[in-house]
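for the recovery benchmark. tokens below, seq after
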């Protein structure tokens, strides 16, 4: 079994190394220097292996750190009850969510397909060795942070020790149950496509996790300890069942054939199929516009299910939240004062919110999958004049698509500010509204400009641009960092408006100049 694991680890590592080398070769300037023979360079492969192993080690800890720091420890700060009890309470219900969404064993990945069906490795040995490795990573990854944050919350050290084994055992039990379901009923589970009842359980678990503490009901440490010990003991039985199970190859043939390459659909194809299902082919959908304006208008109308209809739902949710906030501030004086303080000092937080609700990236993905991936094969479509004309129309469309929820939030914040006591300067109401609109326009332009300047997709709709991935990731990091920034609304709002205007002007200029050269299919 150890030999099988080493072979599978080398296979997975080789795949990662080649991905790293490919990403390096896609970087501007560097890609012109590095030769195609780069993949045969032994020294670079050694460096790639070192990077891959470091990434593997970091992955053991970084995800667990973020999870416990934000979802668990961060959650304890929201309530006034016993922090130790809330810590274990959240861990209990969120572990249920985690075990259903991240099984490890039932995650259809390319390395499993390569190992079991291309290289013909023993399916049972491959599964058991890699599953054991995943469970060990869970225990090692959770251990330091359950102690760090648990002791900060005054959780008993014995419980801190139990938690990693509790999480691992819960995953083992779910894995064993899924194997039992397959053996008895022939039902296979694909964690990338959870069935409806799993989503129901996840929703209930999240509600119990964060809802019960609001009404001062939490699972005490002693009850959690009993549940943890029972789960660990049952987990031992789960290990025995998983070891005795013999139908791994047959089971994975069903799971992987439904999800991977060649005879198998990959994630990109699934996304593409889902997008195609939502296209509206209706003769009543017409346009009075001409040229590329007509072309773009029809596209937007036919894709309204994944574009404008989604923003309407987001806008409705935002409206309900604002109404609920208006009711809450009128019922609770302390909440009223805090809300006023937040609006006047935490406008940077809304940068992250506007980033999350903006549909720019979804729109550009739909544009490529259902339009550009075919049209870019025609020379007239790559003509600089054609690109610029269509780009202008798309800018208008993307901005308008994202404007509805932005207007709801932009109007709602001044209303909340007024309802919570107002402000000394009437200009703050105008700045609040204008800055939210500016953020929305900024993200709309940003996503479209990135798409045109770094066009990341190949003809199979696979992302092949590491520069685009890095730019998207940096955008997320900067927006997430804004959560921690505290600045007066007046100054930050004005700065945001000025920055958005300057960015849009510069980006549009760059797009007009460079898009004719960069907007093309990747190999």
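predicted aa per position
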């Amino acid at each position: 079994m150890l030999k099988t694991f080493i072979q599978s680890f080398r296979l997975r590592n080789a795949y990662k190394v080649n991905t790293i080398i490919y990403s390096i070769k896609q970087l501007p300037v560097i890609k012109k220097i590095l030769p195609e023979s780069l993949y045969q360079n032994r020294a670079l492969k050694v460096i790639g292996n070192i990077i891959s192993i470091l990434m593997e080690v970091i992955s053991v800890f970084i995800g667990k750190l973020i999870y416990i720091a934000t979802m668990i420890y961060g959650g304890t700060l929201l309530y006034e009850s016993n922090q130790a009890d809330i810590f274990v309470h959240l861990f209990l219900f969120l572990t249920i969510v985690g075990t259903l969404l991240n099984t490890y064993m039932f995650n259809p990945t390319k390395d499993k397909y390569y190992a079991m069906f291309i290289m013909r490795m023993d399916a049972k040995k491959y599964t058991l060795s890699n599953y054991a490795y995943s469970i060990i990573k869970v225990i090692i990854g959770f251990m330091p942070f359950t102690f760090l944050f648990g002791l900060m919350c005054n959780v008993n050290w014995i419980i801190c020790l139990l938690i990693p084994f509790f999480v691992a055992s819960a995953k083992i039990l779910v894995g064993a149950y899924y194997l039992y379901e397959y053996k008895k009923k022939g039902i296979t589970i694909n964690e990338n496509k959870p069935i409806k009842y799993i989503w129901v359980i996840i929703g209930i678990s999240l509600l119990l996790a964060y809802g019960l503490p609001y009404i001062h009901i939490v699972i005490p440490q002693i009850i959690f300890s009993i549940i943890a010990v029972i789960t660990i003991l049952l987990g031992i039985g789960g290990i025995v069942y998983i070891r005795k199970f013999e139908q791994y190859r047959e089971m994975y043939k069903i799971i992987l054939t439904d999800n991977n390459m060649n005879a198998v659909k990959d994630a990109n194809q699934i996304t593409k199929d889902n997008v195609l299902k939502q296209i509206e082919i209706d003769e009543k959908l017409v346009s009075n516009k001409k040229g590329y304006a007509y072309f773009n208008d029809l596209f937007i109308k036919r894709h309204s299910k994944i574009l404008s209809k989604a923003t309407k739902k987001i806008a409705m949710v935002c409206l309900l939240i604002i109404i609920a906030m208006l009711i809450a501030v009128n019922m609770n004086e302390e909440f009223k004062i805090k809300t006023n303080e937040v609006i006047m000092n935490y406008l940077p937080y809304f940068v992250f919110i506007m980033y999350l609700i903006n549909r720019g990236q979804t729109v550009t993905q739909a544009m490529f999958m259902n339009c550009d991936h075919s049209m870019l094969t025609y020379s007239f479509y790559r003509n600089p004049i054609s690109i610029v004309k269509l780009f202008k129309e798309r800018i208008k469309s993307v901005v308008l698509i994202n404007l509805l929820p932005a207007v709801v939030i932009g109007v709602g914040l001044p209303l909340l500010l007024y309802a919570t006591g107002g402000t000394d300067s009437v200009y703050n109401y105008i700045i609040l509204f204008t800055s939210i609109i500016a953020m929305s326009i900024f993200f709309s332009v940003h996503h479209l400009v990135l798409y045109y300047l770094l066009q990341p997709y190949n003809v199979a709709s696979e992302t092949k641009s590491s520069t685009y991935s890095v730019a998207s990731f940096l955008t997320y990091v900067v927006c997430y960092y804004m959560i921690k920034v505290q600045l007066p609304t007046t100054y930050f709002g004005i700065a945001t408006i000025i920055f958005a205007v300057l960015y849009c002007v510069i980006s549009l200029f760059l797009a007009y100049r460079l898009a004719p050269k960069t907007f093309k299919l990747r190999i």
